[in-house]
Amino acid sequence: ANAVHQIQAGQVIVDLCSVAKELVENGFDAGATAIDVRFKNQGLDSIEVQDNGSGIAAHNYESVALKHYTSKLSNYDDLSTLQTFGFRGEALSSLCALSKFSVITCTQEDAPRATKLEFEMSGKLKSTSVVSGQRGTTVIVEDLFRNLPVRRRELERNIKREWGKVINLLNQYACIQTDVKFTVSQQPTKGKRMVLFSTKGNPSTRENIINVFGVKTMNALIGMDLKLELIPTTGPLDKGKLKEGATAEVRILGYVSRPVHGEGRQTPDRQMFYVNGRPCGLPQFAKVFNEVYRSYNSSQSPFIFADIQLDTHLYDVNVSPDKRTILLHDQGQMLDNLRESLIELFETQDV
Ligand code: ADP
Ligand code: MG
């Protein structure tokens, strides 16, 4: 049973990014207004995520790290309207199986008396002890993949690339989440801890982008608020999802590099996509942005921060375990519309 648990855990937690993603999303789900992500040795030694959210109530200590335990979904019908990131109850149990795993947590009522929880690999609670702390939860993942030598070696060998990916992902969360103080720091095995970037609990994504990428980057961007009208079709793609007479407006909100003819790089080529505020990869959308942008400046890719806002009946998030992949219905029509709107937006700029 242990080996099976380990294999399944290795499918939920595949790399540094999945650790960071699961822990940060748990912080957001707990209603945190401050999230602090701390790496030691780029995550090879440890990854700690501290939040000031609800904390975990004592009667849940035994169950939180058990497989399929989740407090977030009461029945299956909730899936379509789910507002939280998590709902599978697989992250903590997987991390137990793949690392030295512990939690320090404290609810409002218990503050300043926090509890440190240690778990067995199976997710069974091993010990609790009282420590001091404020409302919130800190999850500590040490020595990731310590019991999967091949995976561990792979991580160490590719650490440069993995590190780049995890920082990009954290940038993505930090930029979209308003009213949350988001801090990321790293400490080398020997040496001082350094803050890599932080947001200040800003009311707007604009200020978040300035905190993360700098005011110079912001000044080279243009705002976008594109409205794509979708015409309900009866083609096989829709599978009845786009009901007759249903309003199917898609809005794309965010920022994109101002197109500049033939000049040097104005912005870092970071491309961040979201669906209803949920970070995800949207390669087909990125392709349209890049193509339209390159008709102005053939040698560069734009900075993109784009939140696709649409009704939940127009997409499925539930297609991949990490929920990074999102299936949009009638994507072809959205992309055609996007291309036209982008050209229109760029045409109104002085280039
Ligand atoms: P899921 O997020 O899918 O519910 P997880 O394995 O990520 O599953 O977490 C299991 C449960 O542990 C959550 O449903 C929640 O009740 C609790 N939990 C995890 N992280 C936190 C946190 N940072 N703050 C409060 N509760 C948490
Ligand atoms: Mg979770």
TrEMBL record:
Residues 209-347 form the DNA mismatch repair protein S5 domain. Belongs to the DNA mismatch repair MutL/HexB family. This is DNA mismatch repair protein PMS1. The chain holds residues 12 to 362 of 1149 of the full protein.
